[in-house]
Amino acid sequence: MFIGHYCIAFALKKYDKKLNLGFLFIAAQLLDFAFFFFAIFGIEHMRFVPGFTETSSLEVYFAPYSHSLLAAGIWAIGTYLVVRYLFLKNSDESEVNKSKTALALGIAVFVHILLDLLVHAVEFTLIPGTDYKVKGLGLWDYLFIGMALEISVLLIGCFFYFKSTTSEDNFVSKYGMLLFIIYLVFMAILAPFLPDPIDTITFSITGLTFFTLFSLIAFWLDRKRNPVDVEIS
Prior knowledge:
Structural class: mainly alpha
Strand content: 5-15%
Strand order of the largest sheet: 1-2
Number of domains: 1
Shape: globular
Radius of gyration: 18 Å
Number of strands: 6
């Protein structure tokens, strides 16, 4: 999954309105940040197989340290602990709010693997170093179903986001986030039709660049909006 991973980032803004969306974007893609970094240094591996699925030719055939279920849990728990007891250690927030922020980021990290299980056709390792695996549902084998799912979950997350924030009286605050979401949807529609990258290193660097850029944009645009305390009926 690509832009669909950001659904949980948008949705969790409802849970912790003080937490900037940019940090949630980083958490939602943390496993892919790790995977691309590992791929660059030859620790994890992928390849492009024409026709591998209708939606993507990417085959991730060795990623136990970033995309196994146990690893995802460790990354999520690690995120919680680092945020709670390092980054927020000297924060003026209450202990409850510190835990709330750390938990939101940890959840965003782990949900990544659950969303990947919906679309990837590969077998995900349960525990690194063992043969215990679970196969993804492979919805990327169906172009329009996979695309519709990705866009749908993103828009559901965005619904919660806009219910949790309000705009100020300026163009960026009113329309900036909406335009950014439209761009993400456009990228989801375009991605299956793009040619394969020259090599996996180029693909990894490009992925890291875009994920970083998206997080920065989300951070900036979220600061232009204000949280609200309106319950969704």
